[in-house]
Amino acid sequence: MRHLFLGLVLAPPTAVLLMSIALLFQLRHFQRVVPVLRTPDDVVKFKSLAKTQMFATLASFVLLVVPLLVWFFGCFGVAVLGWLDFPGYVVLPFVVVVVSIAAMPRTAQEVRNTPVANPSLEAERDHVADVWVNRLLPDW
After folding, report:
1. Closest among 7, 5, 9, 18 to 97, alpha carbons compared
2. 113: Cβ–Cβ under 8 A, 6 or more apart, which residues?
3. CA pair distance 58, 71, nearest whole angstrom
4. What is the C-alpha radius of gyration for the chain, rounded to an integer number of angstroms?
5. What is the per-residue pLDDT across 90-106, written as a single tens digit (0 to 9) for each?
6. What values do phi and psi take at 41, rounded to 5?
7. What are residue 116's DSSP bridge partners?
8. Band (38; pLDDT cuts 50, 70, 90)
9. In angstroms, how far apart are the furthest CA atoms of the chain?
10. What is the distance between the alpha carbons of residues 70 and 49, in angstroms, rounded to a whole number?
């Protein structure tokens, strides 16, 4: 039973790390396919990318709370985890995730610097970038 709880504690940070890497690859792929926003269709793709990344980031925030809840239940509910499991299996993986994500390229800066061929699309790009960086959910 202890191994099950430890697996449940370690699975969410692992999923967040893998999701972060996948989101970085998704952004890189978009930048290769659409190096410059030229048409309204490119802006639609840009919005879709932003929407996906925003929802995935929100899911990551939720996933990072799960280990604490599982540890709490495993420690106080069914008594298969102990106090020393907290720093090793809850805090340390959280720190690893935060440091790993902090070491990744700054998505916000890259999004704001996305080149635009048409000045009329610049305002749209700026709006998407602002929502992407400053809000939890997209407004489109």
Report:
1. 18
2. none
3. 22
4. 19
5. 999 999 999 999 998 88
6. -65, -40
7. 37
8. very high
9. 62
10. 32
